[in-house]
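Exercise: predict the fold of this chain.
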Amino acid sequence: MERKLITLYKTRTFGQKMSDTFDFVTENWKPLLKFSTYLLLPLTMVLAVCMTSMMDGYSLVLNSNGTLGNNELSEVLISYVGTLIMSVVCGLVGTALVYACMRLYGERDERLQGLTGATLKPLLLSNLKRLLALTGIGLAVSAVLIAVLFVLASQLRTASVMMMVLIFIIAPIVLVPLSLTAPVYLFEDETSALGAFAKAWRLGFATWGGTLAVLFVLGMIAYLASGALSIPYIIVNVMKMMTKTGELSAANGDAGIFTSMLEYLLCVFTYFTSQLTMMLTYIGLGYQYGHASDKIEGTGTNREIEQFETL
């Protein structure tokens, strides 16, 4: 029996948002897992190399007693930067993949059944380009805001504590609506990057409570799931860090190689599954955007009228 199509632009209760999110995952987990394996698994393998190198460097720092040379410190810094960059890349690719699949799900008569890489590729690449534009604008704006806050804090040292309190209060008010920026920009071809930020603010602020609820609940589910799946990696990593550098390999070279390989494989598994669990939040935000767009602008009703007129 064919499942009922999950409409994107539809006013929903919180329960309906959760239900549609999990229904989408239940119906389309095979293509999501398939393309995640193709796209994200290789990236998480590179990320795991950077992460294990960074943790090895951190272990060296703990056991060096302040005697690390410049080369060792440079290696730690490079691995840290590599981990940060690859984490961002994985996040961008995961976001682009989820919204490409959600869009094709609504546009294709067969939904995601039989979806091929050739069909997905154009929209996926378009999403990546648009996400890079959003990321660039976001980084530029963040840099300006940080610079302004730094100047204000240096000029008003007596009020610095008050400013920090205000930042912690204002940040959620601003950031929660802006979480809809990606779905706005990726679902609406005619919207510019700056226009996506403005529209996300307008829709997100008007539905601030619902957006926060979706972020919190699905984010907490993703966090708990990824945390549970990362326990084996954490155990192995802690055991390795508790052993002074060189002791394990000196005592038993084969055991040292086995531990390093196990740590790497568990790191890959941890980061790959964390990317998969984060998709739940992306999907929920997509349906939150559809809810806000229909509630504030009547997008779903307007599309139904347009479809009726074309019959």
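Check your answer against the key: The two ends are 27 Å apart (CA to CA).
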